[in-house]
Amino acid sequence: MKEELQLNKRRFFHFRNILENYIRTQRHLEEYSELLTFEKIQQIIQKQIRREEQINNIQKAILKEHDKETEVRNLVKNFLYTEGYLQHYIEKLPKYILNNILRRQYYRKIQLENLIKKADDEE
User: Which domain of life is it from (predicted)?
Assistant: First the structure.
């Protein structure tokens, strides 16, 4: 319970920072848009879209409305991509990087198993 409280506290601070950046950028865009080039405006709009997605994801995580199917899909995708990367570059990677990647893969596997187990328990 205490760990989840700390996690939500960090999420809230991150949420607040992203929201402040979003609002500040929006205000600057409104004030100075005529001074910016079209490319710069497009970059800012893309950044704002990414921030909106982050805000929505953090909001869902805090409220525990996270889409489990998307989470499992992303976890599997990251696991498989990393496995392919390891097969291709395992000989060239320094030992400490290889250990970090293997550790992450181990935790992804555990997380995936836990998510699948939770989904089975809910049904």
Answer: Bacteria
